[in-house]
Write a structure and sequence with these properties.
alpha/beta, eight-stranded parallel β-barrel
Length: about 260
C-alpha cells in the first residue's frame, strides 16, 4: 500500500501545506495541485463540487503527488465512506461538537472491529493497492473540525477520542460561534480572545497526541501558525487565488492606462 504523504511528513517533524479546491473542475484542480502543496482538499461542504467532479479532482490531485483530502458536507456515514472509497487519503468533517459525534466520525472512517465503515473501496483499492483493506485504518486520516462554541467548550474531551487523527480549526465559524457578530467574518484572527481560542485548540490536540490544522486566509498567517506549532496549514482556496490574480491584473492595467493619460 502506498504511504500517506502527510503521515510521512509528520513522522519527519515537518509541517504540511494544504491547498483547497472549491471550483468543481478537474483542470482547475490539476493546476492548483501541481504548485507544490503537500495535500489538497476537495471541499464538498461549501465548494461548488458534485460527486462526478470530485472523482476527477481527486484523480488530478493524486497525479500531482499531493495527498488528496476531502471535506465532507456533514457528519453522516455515506459521504465519509464515499469520499474514502473514491480514494481520499483523509476526511475533514465540519461541525463536530461533542465526543460522541467525534466517535461517530471515527467509526465511519475505520473498518470493523474498530469502526463501522462498509467495505467497498472501489477506486481506493485500485490506486492504493490490493492490500488497502488491511492497511486503510492506519493509512487514512480523520480530522474533526472545531468551529462552534459547543465544540470549543468540550475540545479536550473531543481530542481524547480514540482513533481521531487531528483537530482542524475553522476560524470563521468559530469566531461567529464564540463572539457572534462582534467581529468581521473570515480567517486570520487577530483578536486576543480568538488567538487564545486557537491556542487552546492547538494545545488540546497536542496534549492528546493529535495533529492540529488551521484554515488560513494568507501565506503570512499560515507561516505564523506553523511557528505556533500547527502541523498543517491551509492556504487560500482556488476561488480566492483566481479572484486575487484577476484583480491584480485589472488594477495594474488600469493604473498603467491612467498614468499614460496623465
Amino acid at each position: 500500500m502506498l504511504p500517506n504523504r502527510l503521515r510521512m511528513l509528520w513522522a519527519d517533524g515537518k509541517p504540511a501545506l494544504n491547498g483547497w479546491l472549491s471550483i468543481g473542475d478537474a483542470f482547475a484542480a490539476e493546476i492548483v495541485a501541481n504548485q507544490g502543496y503537500d495535500a489538497v482538499t476537495v471541499d464538498l461542504q461549501h465548494g461548488m463540487v458534485d460527486d462526478g467532479a470530485a472523482l476527477a479532482m481527486l484523480q488530478a490531485v493524486r497525479a500531482s503527488g499531493a495527498s488528496p483530502l476531502v471535506r465532507v458536507p456533514w457528519l453522516a456515514p455515506a459521504p465519509v465512506m464515499r469520499a474514502l472509497d473514491m480514494g481520499a487519503h483523509g476526511v475533514i468533517c465540519p461541525m463536530v461538537e461533542t465526543p460522541s459525534q467525534a466517535a461517530e466520525l471515527v467509526s465511519f472512517v475505520r473498518y470493523p472491529p474498530t469502526g463501522t465503515r462498509s467495505f467497498g473501496p472501489t477506486r481506493a483499492a485500485v490506486v492504493d493497492g490490493a492490500a488497502y483493506g488491511e492497511g486503510a485504518d492506519t493509512h487514512v486520516l480523520c480530522f474533526a473540525m472545531i468551529e462552534t462554541a459547543r465544540a470549543f467548550a468540550d475540545v479536550e474531551a473531543i481530542a481524547a477520542t480514540p482513533g481521531l487523527d487531528g483537530l482542524y480549526i475553522g476560524p470563521a465559524d468559530l469566531t461567529l460561534g464564540l463572539t457572534g457578530r462582534r467581529y468581521r467574518t473570515g480567517f486570520d484572527r487577530e483578536e486576543p480572545e480568538m488567538v487564545d481560542a486557537v491556542h487552546r485548540i492547538l494545545a488540546a490536540a497536542k496534549g492528546a497526541g493529535l495533529r492540529a490544522a488551521l484554515h488560513c486566509g494568507s501565506p503570512a498567517y499560515a507561516a505564523k501558525a506553523v511557528g505556533w506549532g500547527f502541523h498543517m496549514v491551509t492556504l487560500p482556496n482556488d476561488v480566492r487565488i483566481l479572484a486575487r490574480g484577476a484583480m491584480a491584473d485589472v488594477v495594474e492595467t488600469r493604473t498603467m492606462l491612467d498614468n499614460r493619460r496623465s
